[in-house]
Write a structure and sequence with these properties.
globular; 5-stranded parallel β-sheet; alpha/beta; about 325 residues; 7-stranded antiparallel β-sheet; binds FE2/S2 (inorganic) cluster
Amino acid sequence: MNDSQTLAVIVTAIEQVTPLIKHFTLAAADGGALPAFSGGSHIIVVMQGSLRTHRNPYSLLSSPQRLDSYEIGVRRMEESRGGSHFMHDHLKVGSRLEIAHPVNLFGLDKVARKHVLIAGGIGITPFLAQLEDLAEGTAPYELHYAVRSPEHAAFIRRLQDRAGERLRLYYDTADQSIDFDGLLSAQPLGTHVYVCGPAGLINRVIDTARRFGWPDSHVHWEKFSAPPVGDAFDVFLARTQRSVHVPPDRSLMESIEAAGVEVPYLCRGGVCGFCETRVIEFDGELVHNDHFLSAAEKSSGKRIMPCVSRARCTRLVLDL
Ligand code: FES
């Protein structure tokens, strides 16, 4: 996937659903059906800001059975580098955007005997679409949704309609919290757990599941966060013969794209492996922030994932 493969869409509805979250509905600019997807899929929204192009991933929350539009929820991030503010402040009904085709890196396991879904805040969005897929299947499920307070609980009516008594809500303001040990210590064999939300929640679920002997293949997580910042550095692209400066607040991939060179991507979060790039030469340290390369691959210094990884060096040459 790269930007030459994007689709044009029009914003057809915007709703403020909590003080921090807006709900956007997007339809194909040509009026046709949008590409099919399954619950857990995300799209990359390409936003042309005045100073930079933002490309942010958002989970599709609409029903996979409806392809006349896509729906996404966008939380205004305090520490935003511009993408969520652009979505909140600049988009209007009728605005035109480019999006990348849906990709699912957080799908439901088809042979799971049970599904345990755990969401924190805006992390509820992929589960909204997955509830539609779960309604079609026979495996039981339960959904645990933790939020700051009732006014911050987005899409509650829709969740209650779809999940009914399988939905369990936890409000920080009421001192309610998920009993991770209780939840993950007593599930039937063949259960899969899925978690989406802040890094602390994801790490807690992964650590608890490991402690109770869950196989890694039964623990699924999705985290969308801005690429890590770091020191500025320069990179030379050997195939396209370009020198690119990477400032502290822009990722290696964003800087290369800003120089007009396309890098393939799916997740832009260091998970899918699609952007894996060969390192030809470097004279310092590669800062690997991805979850894709093995420890041995990282220490070999031969590969880098430019969507999230950086370098501390004076010379870096990539095969791009
Ligand atoms: S785009 Fe997925 S790992 Fe970089």
